[in-house]
Write a structure and sequence with these properties.
By secondary structure, the chain is an alpha/beta fold. Helix content is 41%, strand content 23%.
């Protein structure tokens, strides 16, 4: 951890000295683009006729009462990404410990191939358990392909990954030469039929419930398991990164099997990567906040957004949308907490309600909007995620899944401290100084 914090500080200092800050697309301009017709929906590998898509969206609107988030926001993202929303999926919301357990179970049952892309692959109890199981599956004839980030996994010794390679696993070390663009994605796809994504890394921090004897403070995280036709979209994101980094050829016929309907959730896989013209996960958040009509409930581990996102949140609150944020009290980069707190006064004055999670280190990156639209992913509400990193989010449209997201949010609210404007104005001069100082680095946090 000390090595990682030192490197993070060094990277930040280098970026400040070089003046390196990536440009973001004009979200306000893109969000104002005119759209016509319903969003395109893909079912059984084919795009549905517009009339059928409209009927399905109308039905979802009746269920939830939501409007713009189902029509305008989804249509905007479809036009920006060039990809439709995919019907027929079963999305399962998972906590960190649940995700670790379910990923291990899915890997154990793999028959053909396993693709794993992760920011952190730790040499701890959980990391070694994953490594041992992956080696076992490779020995059984299941092809395992791994992408890990060279900075995120900097604390893991090279011998750990040499052992995986020696066991026949294909391993790519992501982007060693460019420290400013990281692979922050978390994707696991098993047999091309089950996908996991979210905030969960391969580390014991994620596996602990905090109930074990002498346990460290537990983490709060979230993942989603997806089964159904949308799995191919997450497989494609992994596949494209693999090809860009010139990994061994993976025959498409082995990794993209026919997929049948598994449930009633609609899913979009939103991936961002360095160098693209439109930072898609950033635009996903901006357009969602801008089109909310009833409520926006966000859980954000790292909250150091740009002015456009702040304006989208405050603008929503001022037009009567219930905007609630669960943010970190502490995390592994304290300066990020202070930088985020520098926005609290403006947010609170605008009617945004802010809560700080107690007793856990917050690592989740989720949002649920208007009782129908949800996202779970790797994207933090900060400039590293918005402008520099490779990220991935699942957008899930469905009332039942949104209800589970809302239940998780409400449970976290019960374990959070509400920040009021009156109380916030009483904080010490020293606290204000730390926030103002951290704000200077906001574009690099």
């Amino acid at each position: 951890m000390a090595k990682k914090i030192f490197l993070y500080a060094l990277l930040t200092l280098s970026m400040l000295m070089s003046g390196c800050a990536s440009n973001l697309p004009n979200a306000e301009r893109l969000a104002a683009l005119p759209v016509t017709g319903p969003p395109e929906i893909q079912s059984n590998g084919r795009e549905l006729p517009p009339a059928k898509s409209k009927a399905l969206m109308d039905n979802l609107e009746k269920e939830s009462g939501a409007t713009s988030i189902l029509t305008r926001q989804l249509k905007l993202m479809e036009e920006i990404t060039g990809k439709p929303i995919i019907a027929g999926n079963e999305a399962t919301l998972l906590t960190g410990p649940e995700a670790i357990a379910m990923m291990l179970e899915a890997i154990s049952g793999a028959k053909d191939n396993i693709n794993l892309e992760t920011y952190v692959f730790s040499n701890d109890k959980t990391g070694r358990k994953f490594a041992g199981l992956l080696l076992q599956k490779q020995a059984e004839g299941v092809q395992v392909n791994l992408i890990y980030d060279s900075i995120g996994s900097i604390d893991t010794p090279a011998a750990f990954f040499r052992r995986l390679r020696a066991g026949g696993i294909n391993v790519i070390k992501y982007n060693l030469t460019d420290p400013f663009h990281r692979d922050h994605r978390k994707i696991l796809v098993v047999d091309g039929k089950t996908a996991f994504t979210g905030g969960v890394n391969i580390t014991s921090d994620e596996a602990s419930s905090g109930d074990e004897k002498n346990a460290a403070k537990p983490w709060k995280d979230a993942d989603v398991m997806i089964q159904g036709p949308a799995v191919a979209a997450f497989q494609r994101l992994f596949y494209d990164t693999w090809k860009r980094h010139k990994g061994p050829i993976l025959p498409e016929q082995d990794y993209f099997p026919p997929l049948k309907k598994e449930g009633d959730d609609y899913v979009m896989a939103i991936g961002s990567r360095p160098g693209e013209r439109n930072r898609l996960t950033y635009l996903m958040y901006y357009t969602a906040f801008s089109n909310a009509t009833n409520y926006i409930h966000v859980t954000a581990a790292y909250f150091v957004p740009n002015r456009a996102i702040i304006n989208a949140l405050t603008g929503a609150a001022m037009r009567g949308v219930d905007v609630q944020l669960i943010l970190a009290t502490e995390d592994d980069v304290p300066i990020a907490v202070y930088a985020g707190q520098s926005y609290y006064t403006h947010l609170l004055k605008s009617g945004v309600r802010i809560y700080q999670l107690k007793g856990r280190i917050l690592h989740a990156k989720t949002a649920v909007i208007d009782g129908i639209w949800s996202t779970v992913g790797s994207t933090n509400l900060d400039m590293w995620s918005f402008a520099n990193n490779k990220e991935v989010n699942a957008v899930i449209v469905g009332k039942d899944f949104a209800g589970k997201m809302e239940a998780m949010f409400e449970n976290d609210l019960r374990n959070s401290k509400k920040i009021t404007l009156k109380q916030w104005r009483k904080r010490s001069i020293f606290e204000r100084f730390k926030e103002s100082f951290a704000r200077l680095f906001a574009n690099w946090l």
